[in-house]
Amino acid sequence: MREVTLVGGGLSGALLALMLARRGVKVTVYERRADVRAEQIEEGRSINLALSVRGIHALNRVGLDAEVLARAIPMRGRYIHPVTGSCSLIPYGRTADEVIHSVGRRGLNVQLLDALAREKNATVHFQHRCTNYNLRTQTLTIRDEAAGREVGVEAPVVIGTDGAASAVRLALMQSTRMNYSQEYLDHGYKELTIPPAPDGTFRLEPNALHIWPRGGYMMIALPNLDRSFTCTLFLPHRGEPGFDQFPMPEAVTSFFTRTFPDAVPLIADLPGEFFRNPTGGLVTVRCSPWYSEGRVLLLGDAAHAIVPFFGQGMNCAFEDCEVLADLFDEHGGNWDEVFPRFFASRKPNTDAIAQLALDNFIEMRDTSADPHFALKRQLEHK
Ligand code: FAD
């Protein structure tokens, strides 16, 4: 029986494990975090993601598309909130069924892990962090976080699905001639919450991705199943305005009152959440190649982390899983054939999406605020 070790049991790790286990591969997954299914996090407090056709197609390959879409909220277009004046919806497509879907990250991860738990070929070790991979001895160093000890694990074939700060990628960089670059945006992000109205309804139009475009910065909001919205504020780390310009709660409230006036009465705990919630960084990771012979491969954000403005990071990672599974079938599971072909087929596409994601930040924060642009888009869709 073929065996593979996956480092990272997040979105791409869980889906890939499922696909490979169903192909008769013995899959062992090491995941740094505790099992999300055991954690008591309220739905709606974790971040949500836009799921689109690329991701749905991959989920369909494991029969999970309907189950995931049943817990998703369709978004028909961008709902633009100007500083003054009325809001407008710019549809994504010409017909009502051309939508993207808001899904909860945690709920999706739970659905994937539940499906994986039903596969007899797959084992997931939670709270097991990979700290190194020795390519020469083909040994992973795994830290059991609960027991507080480190062990060496023999792993002749490793796939790094461990996200943007991949430990597997670092090990590969240190022992192969891998090219690598990471590019941070000057902007970071912070999440804020619009809770449901007292009568349990949504406080904004639920079937839309809300945008407050303000030129050099913006805020967006996606709906959650519990009828709340998760807002994400994208602002420069430094400058005017910038995350470093808010010494006091009053400064936050005054900035929001000036720039996002209609959102102020909706965000229940504005200064509190602003100071409590972390500010995240936004990075594009490019590297090549993503593999070493038929022994190690990077997939998902570990290979190509992108900024979130095109809503395609997860979708693209899911597409990676689908392409890898197809290549596995075509080449009878011969990793020496599969890994280079996977890299050759995915690299140009993921480079293109990385650039589109950077470009779309400009469009979202600037152009969609331009009334002429909004009108043009509406006429295109008439
Ligand atoms: P991850 O989801 O990061 O999973 C990696 C897993 O590996 C995690 O479970 C982690 O705990 C584990 N891990 C990490 N290191 C180790 C280690 N050393 N040992 C063991 N385990 C480890 N994408 C979309 O498609 N649509 C969106 O709308 C969207 N919005 C986004 C908004 C924001 C603010 C951000 C930051 C990203 C967004 N993305 C979106 C991108 C999306 O989140 C990622 O592309 C996606 O999560 C990548 O999946 P992954 O499995 O490759 O990595």
Unreliable spans: none
Tell me the major beta sheet.
7 strands, mixed
Q: What's the CATH C level of the domain at 3-56 and 102-181 and 284-359?
A: Alpha Beta
Mean pLDDT: 93
Report the C-alpha radius of gyration, rounded: 22 Å
Number of helices: 11
Query: Numbering strands along the chain, what is their spatial order in the largest sheet?
Result: 6-5-14-15-16-13-17
The name CATH uses for the topology of the domain at 3-56 and 102-181 and 284-359 is: FAD/NAD(P)-binding domain
Strand content: 25-35%
Helical residues, percent: 25-40%
Could you give the count of β-strands? 19
What is the correct CATH architecture of the domain at 3-56 and 102-181 and 284-359?
3-Layer(bba) Sandwich
- Give a list of the ligands: flavin-adenine dinucleotide
Order of helices and strands: EHEEHHEEEEHEEEEEHEEEEHHEEEHHHH
- Net shape: globular
Q: Considering the protein shown, what is the CATH homologous superfamily of the domain at 3-56 and 102-181 and 284-359? A: FAD/NAD(P)-binding domain
